[in-house]
Amino acid sequence: MLFVAAIIGTFGAAGVIRAAGQRTDDVERISGLGSVLAPIPDDGDTSIEYPAENYLLVGSDTREGVDASSSDFGVIGDSGNVGGRRSDTIMVLRQERNGGASLMSLPRDLWVEIAGTGKSQRINTAYNDGPERLAATVSQSLGIPIHHYVEVDFVGFKDIIDRLGGVEVCVQYAARDLHSGLSLNPGCQVLDGVQALAYARSRYFEEWDGAEWRIDPRADLGRIERQQLFMRAAVDGALRKLQSSPFGSSDTIDAVIGSVRIDEGLDPIKAGATLRKAAELELRTFALPVVNDTVGNAAVLRLGDGAGLLLDYFSGKGPAPVEFETGVPAAVDESATTG
Predict the structure, then answer these.
(1) Which residues contact 58 (CB under 8 A, 6 or more apart)?
(2) What is the pLDDT of residues 215-247, one digit of tens each?
(3) What is the CATH class of 2-37+62-335?
């Protein structure tokens, strides 16, 4: 969802800021988050010491508004598959006040105490009671202050990618996911919204080794790695498009406005410009160390060795632990910089 934040930054691009300011009034705001979001110090305010702001970025798997006759029906499904909204993707974006940005994904199956319940469960279940419960759980159970909240749904994700003209992804082998509908040829290819969604959602990712299909045994952890690589490519693609045609971003802006929900205190123009600058400077991605466990008959993940160091970094209490920083394979890195 970082690319959504970067696109919001287009509102600060030359020639569109006035029109964008009027259109951001149409962005859906989420009430009730004020009591769980951390205070943000004003410039020059030394009473609150915090070197960065954290955004909780959530991908919702709501099926609301999906057209059964459209090409994305097989990938997304409809409200009969999953009613209401659930959090399919949870990320924390740390935006340095004087630097770049860092991204950490939280596995859906991470076992934590759900804020306000006194009970532990998978972290994605916190969203069942609303964004405020999820934000409070991240803050209280993981110790990470959350300053802002941004959410995008499945349909919105697909539309934004299509408005960007797709995102280029490179794979060494043919790949598929029979559950999400993903199908990739070896090499580099531009994914449209439907295939981008299938790629980002893939938890049963398989590669053809020349003799048979081999499934990625990492499941959700493998999906997190692919999502981070995809975000790098999407952010770069969005920035390049906006730099080359700042006046031509109207359709993309409309797609963002129609698909995101944000907290009431977030100024899209100010925050977007800051996040865009941060993404241009540097985007670092981190993998939270976890270990497999079971609770009853359910497979879950628990924090692993060294997790405290990474959580301390995102909570503003320590330096970035480079041992948990994820690299970028050369092929994907090249795809993110080609025109």
Answers:
(1) 1, 87, 89, 90, 91, 127, 131, 134, 149, 150, 151, 152
(2) 999 888 888 888 888 877 877 777 777 666 655
(3) alpha beta
